[in-house]
Structure formats: structure tokens, C-alpha cells
Amino acid sequence: MRRQVVAAYLVPLKDARRSNEEVLVMRTRVLSILAVMLLSVLAGCATAPSRTRNICAIFDQRDGWFNNWQRAAERTERKYGVPVPILMATIYTESGFRPRARPPRRYLLGFIPWKRPTTAYGYSQALDGTWDKYKRETGNWTASRTNFADAIDFVGWYHYQTHLQTGIALNNSYDLYLAYYSGAKGYLQGSWRGNSTALAGAKRFNGMTRIYAQQLPSCS
């Protein structure tokens, strides 16, 4: 009789233990799936678009709840008055939409890795000091140079500051790039004159702005 009573209690205990184990297994599976999804999103955010010369393709590839580039670009245009094609052409020219872009390292004796020429980093290739100034003046203390929304907001802010300091029109892509490359003071002093890198960059930037401007109306 006692064995029967003990057995009667053991059966529910085994069932409860089995249920707890099943719950733990289900939780583990759900967490694993969520981790994979999160890693996929982060991996997608860390890679450059494949068709960088087509603004609609860039927006389509990067569109989504987690990382909507088109809304970020349009929001920046409304905030600073800098046209979307100029914002996007800036990032195209500076980093090719690579989130962790840096200037190549210098080499000692031709083979020993050394320092990089500047602290430029991220989508916008903003320098450390300029990025810190942007965060102070905008209050965007958590901004990251590898985050597209932050980077394009920086680009809009920088072009707007250039406009205030130099009088360059916000739709003057050629001169805006020269000032982006040389700084407002360098632009006013004409440091870009005779600088083949700056002039070639401005020409490429101006051409890309026109291409994006032609494509933008067809973007959904």
C-alpha cells in the first residue's frame, strides 16, 4: 500500500520535472533564434551596400525597421536643409558606405605598419575632434561614426555649419565638398587650390550628386 502511495506521488513529480525541462528547452531555442536574428541584423549593419552608385538600391537594401537609411537621410534634409543627394554623395565619396572605413596606414621602411595619417573614421570620415564637437553642439552624446543615422546627421550638421561660416549655398555640391575636405577656414584661405586630391574629390562628388538627384524621384 505504501509503495502505491509513493508511486502515486512520484508520477506527478516526474511529469512536473519533464514539463520544466521542456520549458527550459523551449526558452533556450527561442533565445538562440533571437541571438541569430540579432547577429544577422548587426552583421547587415556592418557591411557596405553592394550597389553604391544607385541611391534607390542603397535605400532598398538598407530599408527596414532596424536600419532605415532613407528616413534618416530625409530627416537630416529637413533638419539642416541639405539635399539628400548631397548627403548621400558625401558618404559615397568619403567612405563608399563602409561603416569602419579608415585612411590606410603608413609604413616605415616600406614594410613596418605605422600610424594612420589622420583620425578619420566611419561613414563620414569625421575626425576625432570634429566628431566630439558635433556631439557637444548637438547633444547627441551616444552618436557613433559607424551608425548611418548618426553619420548622415553629422554630414548635414557639418555642411550647414560650413554654409554659415562661408556662405556656400546648401545646394552647391562642388564647393561644399571642397570645404568638407579642407575645413571652412582652409576653404576660405584657398588651401584646396592646386590640391589634385581635393579637386578630384570635388569633381567626383559633384558628379555623384547629380546621379543621385536624377535617381531619387524614382525611389519608393
TrEMBL record:
Residues 34-219 form the Transglycosylase SLT domain. It holds the Pfam family SLT_4. Gene3D superfamilies: 1.10.530.10. Signal peptide: none annotated. CDD domains: Lyz-like. This is Transglycosylase SLT domain-containing protein.
